[in-house]
Structures are given as structure tokens and as C-alpha cells.
């Protein structure tokens, strides 16, 4: 007879090197993958088959808030400074009593995903998603002790409250900002040294949707930029995105996107039967990302 499970509200937190790093919105524990290896025809039948076992990546999402170890770890990837991190995901009940502890060792951050900002999502929280590859995972019952509560007086960051600076045209009509996803590729790891070999770094792609008169100015800038049939590295621009409070006055955080090189320009579709403002989507390759919390 099947048993209908009960549902409980859980609280999630990350611990890095024994220090509380901050609350998490969601967590994906590392999956275990088994690849079956069958014996080829004509080989010995003493070992008919075997299996290669590998540990998948862990993933989590968190709301951007205060400074701390969690944001410092994220910044390592943007700075191309990889480090081996030992930590744990803490799963607690609604009273913050630790029920489960998912420890991991030698976790290497592989991907950081920033959200899409849109004036249409005025109440959506600014969340950051990250993926890391652990060498080992130790999933154990919790200690039964109360985990530390995160208390902050900072106002929440919302994806609809932003402004874009540094553009060579009027950026007041930027309606959407697709912030970049940064990834790293690792080479062979030397087990005798704590450093990892960085085989490649992808700073990600920035997408801006510009509307109205700003779109006309953006198209004029693009035409001038590509008039000679090429785009040089010296023509890359630095763009700054400021996250604002609900009154759109105080700057809560700043995202600096450096050496942004234009890689695409797509005007919106024109429709004689539709009411709307013409827009243009600009895509940039981003070399560096910096995120700074105010205060």
C-alpha cells in the first residue's frame, strides 16, 4: 500500500569552510551517474560488464543581499581565481532546526547565472544561480541544533528597479537587461597542488532591449560602429548597471560589465496591425563582471 507523504517547509543555508555563508532559495544535490560498460565481442566473458560511476554537479539559487562568503565565492569565478572549497548545505525545518547536512569537499565553482532585469518584473527578486562540481559528497542527518538566522536591514533587490549607464546613446529606455552567465572549463587537476588548471573562461553575453527614441539612437550608433565592416577590440565599451530601491533613488548594488564587444543587433519585427513601440536588441560579449553591494 502506498503511503502519502507529508509536506514540510524547509529552510536552506550554505556553509563554506565551517562559516555560515547565507540562506539559499533552492538546492539541487549532486546526482550519481552510472555508465554501463559492456564487454566487446570476442573478449573474455569472466567480466561480462562493468560500470563507471561519476558524481554530478550541485546547484543552488540565492537572493542577492548582504556581502559575505557566498558572494565572495561567486566573485572568484568572475576574477578567474578558482579555489577548492569545502562546505555543506544545511536543511532545516521551519524552526531552523538542522534536519539534514549535505557536506561536500573540493567543490569547484563552474557557472554563475545572473538574472534578466525587466521593467515588467517590478516585484521579482534578484536571484543568482550557481553550479559547482564537488569531488565527494557526504549526505548525513542533521545535528538537531538550530542553524544561525540571517538578519539584514537591507532592502530587497528587485529585477525591475535598475538603470543602465555607460552606453554611447540615451539608455533611459532600456526595457530589459539579460545579464551574462559566466562559465569556466577546467583542465587536468594536479592532486599535489591546491590550484586548478583553468582551461577556458567564458564571461557570457549581455543582452539589452532598447525601445522608443533610444532604439533609434542605438541603431544609429551600430551603423556608425560597423561602417568600416569590422569591430575592433578598442571599440568595446564598459557598461554599468545600477540596482535601485523601490523609489528609484538609492543605489543598492552595482554591476560593472567591462570590455563589452558588440556581437549582434536585431531590430524588433514591424507589424502594421500591432500597437507598440519599436525596439532593438543588442548583444555584447562580456570580458569581465564585477558586482558590488552598496554600503
Can you tell me about this structure?
The chain has 295 residues and is mainly beta. Helices cover 8% and strands 47% of the residues. The protein has helices spanning 69-78, 212-225; strands at 11-16, 19-24, 26-28, 32-38, 49-55, 58-63, 85-92, 98-113, 116-118, 127-133, 136-141, 162-165, 174-178, 181-186, 198-202, 205-211, 237-244, 251-267, 279-285, 288-293. A hairpin with a 6-residue loop joins strand 17 (237-244) and strand 18.
Number of strands: 20
As a percent range, the share of helical residues equals under 10%
**H-E order:** EEEEEEHEEEEEEEEEEHEEEE
Radius of gyration: 23 Å
| Structural class by SSE content | mainly beta
Largest sheet geometry: 10 strands, antiparallel
Brief summary:
The chain has 295 residues and is mostly beta strands. The protein contains 2 helices and 20 strands. The chain is globular and about 60 Å long.
Outline the fold blueprint:
Layout: E1 11-16, E2 19-24, E3 26-28, E4 32-38, E5 49-55, E6 58-63, H1 69-78, E7 85-92, E8 98-113, E9 116-118, E10 127-133, E11 136-141, E12 162-165, E13 174-178, E14 181-186, E15 198-202, E16 205-211, H2 212-225, E17 237-244, E18 251-267, E19 279-285, E20 288-293
Antiparallel strand pairs: 1-2, 1-7, 3-6, 4-5, 6-10, 7-8, 8-10, 8-11, 8-14, 9-13, 12-17, 13-16, 14-15, 16-19, 17-18, 18-19, 18-20
Task: Provide key terms for this protein.
mainly beta; 10-stranded antiparallel β-sheet; 8-stranded antiparallel β-sheet; 8% helix; globular
Amino acid at each position: 500500500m502506498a503511503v502519502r507523504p507529508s509536506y514540510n517547509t524547509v529552510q536552506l543555508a550554505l556553509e563554506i569552510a565551517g562559516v555560515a555563508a547565507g540562506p539559499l532559495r533552492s538546492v539541487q544535490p549532486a546526482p550519481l551517474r552510472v555508465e554501463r560498460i559492456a564487454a566487446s565481442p570476442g573478449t573474455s566473458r569472466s567480466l561480462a560488464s562493468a560500470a563507471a560511476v561519476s558524481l554530478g554537479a550541485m546547484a543552488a539559487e540565492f537572493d542577492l543581499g548582504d556581502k559575505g562568503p557566498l558572494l565572495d565565492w561567486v566573485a572568484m569565478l568572475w576574477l578567474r581565481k578558482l579555489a577548492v572549497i569545502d562546505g555543506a548545505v544545511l536543511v532545516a525545518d521551519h524552526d531552523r532546526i538542522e534536519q539534514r547536512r549535505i557536506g561536500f569537499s573540493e567543490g569547484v565553482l563552474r557557472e554563475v547565472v545572473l538574472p534578466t532585469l525587466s521593467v515588467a518584473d517590478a516585484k521579482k527578486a534578484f536571484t543568482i544561480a550557481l553550479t559547482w562540481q564537488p569531488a565527494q559528497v557526504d549526505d548525513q542527518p542533521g545535528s538537531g541544533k538550530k542553524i544561525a538566522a540571517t538578519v539584514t536591514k537591507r532592502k530587497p533587490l528587485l529585477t525591475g528597479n535598475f538603470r543602465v549607464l555607460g552606453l554611447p546613446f540615451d539608455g533611459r529606455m532600456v526595457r530589459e537587461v539579460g545579464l551574462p552567465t559566466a562559465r569556466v572549463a577546467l583542465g587536468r587537476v594536479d592532486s599535489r597542488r591546491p590550484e586548478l588548471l583553468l582551461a577556458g573562461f567564458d564571461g557570457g553575453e549581455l543582452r539589452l532591449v532598447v525601445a522608443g527614441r533610444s532604439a533609434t539612437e542605438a541603431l544609429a550608433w551600430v551603423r556608425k560602429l560597423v561602417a568600416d565592416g569590422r569591430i575592433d577590440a578598442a571599440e568595446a565599451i564598459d557598461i554599468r548597471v545600477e540596482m535601485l530601491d523601490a523609489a528609484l533613488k538609492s543605489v543598492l548594488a552595482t554591476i560593472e560589465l567591462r570590455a563589452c564587444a558588440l556581437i549582434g543587433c536585431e531590430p524588433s519585427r514591424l507589424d502594421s496591425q500591432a500597437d507598440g513601440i519599436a525596439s532593438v536588441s543588442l548583444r555584447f560579449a562580456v570580458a569581465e563582471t564585477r558586482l558590488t553591494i552598496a554600503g
